[in-house]
Amino acid sequence: MKLVKKLTVIAASVLALGTISANADLLDKVIEKGKLKCGVVLDFPPMGYRDAKNQPAGFDVDYCGDLAKALGVKLELKSMSFAQRVPAITSGKVDVVIGSTSDTLKRAQSVGFTIPYFVFKQQAMIKKGSGIKTFEDIKGKKVSAALSTVSETEFLKNAKSLGFDKSNYFSSKSENDAHLALLQGKADVIITSDTTISELLKLDKFKDYEAGPFIPNYNDFVSIITKRQEFGFINYLNLFVHQQVRTGRYEELNKKYFGNSPLRDLTVNGIYY
Known about the structure:
This protein is an alpha/beta fold. Helix content is 38%, strand content 24%. It has helices at residues 2-23, 26-33, 59-71, 85-90, 150-161, 175-183, 194-200, 231-246, 249-258, and strands spanning 35-40, 49-50, 56-57, 74-79, 96-102, 111-120, 122-127, 143-146, 169-172, 189-193, 209-214, 220-227.
């Protein structure tokens, strides 16, 4: 009888441990395995790129490193395109993506978003002497942007409202493909972030190009993404974003990658994040 009771206690203990393990959220699992798989986009300087030694670098890459350090785990970076960010989360390929992901309601049906950690303006890049001064001047020009980006969706939305011919637009598979399309004359205009354009204009091959008009009335707030149901991890990531600002790390990385440009405000009037 005592043996039966002892075995019953052992079985109950094993079952309880199994239940705890099964109920562990992603935050627990990352800490337990001692590794954070963080997705980044490496053709989007200065947020993500490869340095002179072909090593991942950039604002987003540093944030991945900071998050791993905060968690006390090793970092495993996973390079991906913009279009691969959401599928990488839903498939479990990565734990988080810090890849300048705009916080759209459509995407929020598939993945979970934190509070914003950065904000962009979407802007046209054009050849010098193109005559393009306003967004309306883009009408009739060949335009491209990277597939599945806010650059693409916001351009198409504004183009439609202004009666632009949609046949003049084509998607590029990646940011690099969009840049190449501009250089090769396949596109008269590309739409990307203001930070990307400022980086490209530092390169000699873009000496004949310049920054063009902004997409009207749009601030592109971007967030860290993870699995939608991981509320505990999302809460942790929100606090991480807060801590990056409060400790001065956000300002430090702004100076590192954007020089003395004004610090970007991560809030919206009337809203508390």
